[in-house]
Design a protein that fits this description.
mainly alpha, 2 helices
Length: about 70
């Protein structure tokens, strides 16, 4: 049994789960977007920032699904 989860078998998530999911989404986009921006700056390209933003968004949604979707 995980700490903070309902013990009565109910499907109501704990109150902090929405904020945690939002923080995962924001952090993933900022982290991978920042990596893409940094690589664009170092390599002189212009396509790694959008790829990093998309990858960060997709990875964040996947992480949220794995953690809270079941």
């Amino acid at each position: 049994m995980e700490a903070g989860r309902p013990t009565d078998g109910g499907s109501t998530p704990p109150p902090g789960d929405a904020w945690n999911a939002l923080s995962f989404l924001i952090t993933g986009v900022l982290l991978f977007g920042g990596i893409g921006w940094g690589l664009d700056t170092l390599l002189g390209t212009g396509w790694l920032l959008p790829i990093g933003l998309l990858f960060g968004g997709c990875a964040s949604v996947y992480l949220i699904y794995v953690r809270y979707g079941k």
